Amino acid sequence: MNLQDWKMLAALYKTENITQAAHQLFLSQPTLTSRIQKLEIHYGVPLILRKRRGITFTPEGEELAHHAKRMLLEQRKMEEKLINMQEEVQGTLRVGVSNFFAANKMPKLLQRFKEKYPEVECQVVTGWSSDMHRLLLNHDVHISFIKGNYAWKEKKALLYEEEICVASPWDFAWDEIPKLPRVDYYTDEHMRILLDDWWHQNYIEQPNITIHVNQVETCKEMVVHGLGYAIVANLVVRPHPELFIKPITDPSGEPLKRQTWMYYQEDTLQMNIVRAFVDFVQTLDVKAL
């Protein structure tokens, strides 16, 4: 097998679909099918089984796909090591970014970093904090910006804290909250548990959720337009002084806060590009960006 075969198997394993894998690899579907057949002939075993929608790997094919993923990782490490030996800050930096950070912090941060290191190319993946944590564990990214504390024995740096608050288009008393219309949104498990625990510590009734949206930014817009209140991190609604904002607290009266961290692995600091980025971020007031 060669590098192209490894990429083909990895794409097939990820998508479980020949058409989608071919699209990712900029190949025609017949070309991809032909390459699969050649591998099957070479190894003397079937590698995939076709289903009504997509494909599934045979045990032999799955073993070969895992091997391909390992080889791609080693290939990437070797390429990064060669670039690093040039002692210049260049190459590709792979970063995982939680959704809110991606929309509100990352563009300014990357712009400033690129101004300082113009030879750097950045590959950014966005999603839930739990997904960014998983990408880092799998070595798919060098660095992840994550909200909340996740199991991690490697390096991490606290970037900022923000209070969790109720944001409402109208003034309100705390005992009125269960009756008021609430705008809810999908969030990661850590934030969901925090909000649910706070609610059940303070109210017997269920919240009156009238609108449920995918993203916190959409939720904020619903609140700004008078459609209900929401419980969000303070930075989400900071640009809207017209809203009524009150922090939520734990049983001892302390404001509940959410932390944003930069997670990375210590051995990646041997790479000039990663070390430069980590050092650069730590010189910034990220919360103020």
Automatic annotation (TrEMBL):
Name of the featured protein: Putative HTH-type transcriptional regulator YraN
UniProt cross-references to InterPro entries, sorted A to Z: LysR_HTH_N (IPR000847), LysR_subst-bd (IPR005119), WH-like_DNA-bd_sf (IPR036388), WH_DNA-bd_sf (IPR036390)
UniProt record similarity statement: Belongs to the LysR transcriptional regulatory family.
Keywords assigned: DNA-binding, Transcription, Transcription regulation
A Gene Ontology molecular function term of the record: transcription cis-regulatory region binding
UniProt domain HTH lysR-type: residue ranges: 1-58
PROSITE patterns: HTH_LYSR
Matches recorded under SUPFAM superfamilies: Periplasmic binding protein-like II, Winged helix' DNA-binding domain
Name of the gene: yraN
